[in-house]
Amino acid sequence: MADLPYIHGYDAQENERLLAQARSVLSLLHDDLRYPVGSRVLEVGCGTGAQTVTLARNSPDARFVSFDRSEVSLERARERVRAGGVTNVELRSEDLFALSFAPGSFDHAFVCFVLEHLPDPVGALTEVRRFVRPGGTITVFEGDHGSAYFHPDSDVARRAIWCQVELQRLMGGNANIGRQLYPLLREAGYAQVRVEPKLVYVDASRPHLVDDFIRKTFTWMVQAVRAPAIDARLIQPEAFDAGIAALLRTAEDDGVFCYTFFKGVATVAPTPRQASAQVARN
Fold this sequence. Notes:
Rossmann fold; single chain; 8 strands; 41% helix; eight-stranded mixed sheet
């Protein structure tokens, strides 16, 4: 598969944004996520390792194979894993649609902030399913930019957000994919699909989220598309800058910001041949 563009880029600010995002979703994603002793877990599209260290620390007796196609991201992930003293992670350079693993060689898969960048999310989920044994599970976590609402409300802020959503659509992705996790997992052949909304609510009583989520996760993400949005004539410079100012306004003492992530968990069912073989053995 040819390399797909990553709309957020790979610069130092994006690296910091990913860390802030990881801190913001720490409890939403990881509080109830633990893998059994001896499990082999495939982390799909690990990026800079923003989730990898937490995954590995929370399940120290599981083994993780975390891969990405970007060498720039993998180098940062290696640095993060070394700095965290994590020893149960193997980092690999792999292409999601040309994986070198044996079919059924993992007990679980973890996919976080990956599907939104892919033109064929069902194909990606179907491909991952090949490498998880029957009875194993997949956990998928994605955001949904259409779920953002805030006080003070602002049409120009919504216009700036739309620019990011539209540019991602033009690049083959879907920034509103969170709401689609249930049908996507079903279409990809998974069983026992369960999806939960995970709301991030931010006001001045949660100063860590004001900085990590409003400023450094969401607003930085939108702000990063300023040049391409203007070049594509989606918005005028003055309007885009006003939209960013309006988003930052929600980080003030009387501001409120809400955003919904979606967490899906599903099981890999045995193929008919595998099910028949199991019945025969019993």
